[in-house]
């Protein structure tokens, strides 16, 4: 083996080890978040639990490749954020992580370590966003608090925290896997004006989903599913029609 090839091999091994270590750290962080939140209450009813798992799975299925083919944009943000606003933290973590893992295994055919990473990143983002709401004095599932103008800042901050943690963790693993710069991956994939506006709409739909669920119950899922599908199709057509999207599609 030539010296030049040996150097490239060593760099490849080193990069792979850093990626493995990063995934392991994220998985440990997600496990710590889940353990810190505690176990879901034993008195949880089966029907609401199944409803939220299916709602989050539907959001996970409605996904689109992110611009530049780095990762993907998931409509599950809507259902995840609604679960944060409605469910106790342990149950919200369980529902969002379990639904994402089920979709990764059943529909996306992800490898086991990809499924673990995605679930851990979800646990970390949901736990932190829920903790922000708790520190702000907001209780999950309280319709009066959600509708109060006094809680707008807390809800907005929780959405921002969820967005930054989730997107930065994903940007990190993409950067290590493809030998890119994490800041550039994040800014080109998640921080463009188009993606920020898209995420803002999904968070607003999640906020609306939580309000409708608390006010009307399970029928709210039909309304939000239709709205999320409309947003997904509008985003897809917009990306396809844009010069960047057209160029990406030809690659």
Explained architecture:
The chain has 251 residues and is an all-alpha fold. The protein has one domain (3-250). The chain is built from 11 helices and 2 strands, in the order ααββααααααααα. A two-stranded antiparallel ribbon has the order 1-2. α2 packs across α4 (89-106) and α4 runs antiparallel to α5 (112-135).
Summarize the structure.
The chain has 251 residues and is an all-alpha fold. The chain has helices at residues 3-37, 46-61, 76-86, 89-106, 112-135, 143-147, 152-178, 182-189, 193-216, 220-241, 243-250, and strands at 63-65, 72-74. Strand 1 (63-65) and strand 2 form a beta hairpin.
List the helices and strands and how they pair.
Blueprint (H helix, E strand, L loop, with lengths): L2 H35 L8 H16 L1 E3 L6 E3 L1 H11 L2 H18 L5 H24 L7 H5 L4 H27 L3 H8 L3 H24 L3 H22 L1 H8 L1
Antiparallel strand pairs: 1-2
């Amino acid at each position: 083996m030539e010296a030049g090839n040996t150097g490239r091999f060593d760099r490849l091994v080193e990069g792979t080890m850093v990626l493995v270590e990063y995934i392991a750290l994220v998985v440990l962080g997600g496990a710590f978040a889940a353990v810190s939140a505690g176990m879901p209450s034993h008195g949880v009813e089966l029907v609401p639990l199944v409803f939220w798992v299916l709602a989050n799975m539907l959001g996970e299925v409605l996904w689109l490749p992110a611009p530049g083919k780095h990762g993907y944009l998931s409509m599950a943000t809507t259902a995840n954020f609604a679960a944060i606003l409605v469910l106790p933290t342990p149950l919200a973590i369980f529902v969002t992580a379990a639904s994402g893992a089920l979709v990764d295994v059943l529909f996306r055919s992800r490898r086991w370590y990809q499924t673990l990473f995605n679930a851990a990143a979800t646990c970390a983002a949901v736990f932190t966003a829920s903790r922000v709401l708790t520190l702000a004095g907001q209780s999950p599932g309280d319709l009066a608090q959600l509708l109060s103008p006094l809680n707008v800042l807390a809800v907005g901050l929780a959405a921002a925290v969820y967005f930054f943690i989730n997107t930065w963790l994903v940007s990190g693993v993409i950067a290590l896997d493809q030998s890119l710069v994490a800041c550039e991956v994040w800014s080109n994939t998640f921080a463009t004006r188009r993606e920020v506006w898209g995420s803002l709409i999904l968070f607003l739909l999640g906020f609306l989903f939580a309000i409708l669920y608390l006010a009307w119950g399970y029928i709210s899922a039909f309304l939000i599913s239709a709205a999320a599908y409309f947003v997904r199709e509008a985003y897809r057509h917009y990306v396809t029609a844009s010069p960047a999207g057209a160029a990406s599609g030809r690659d």
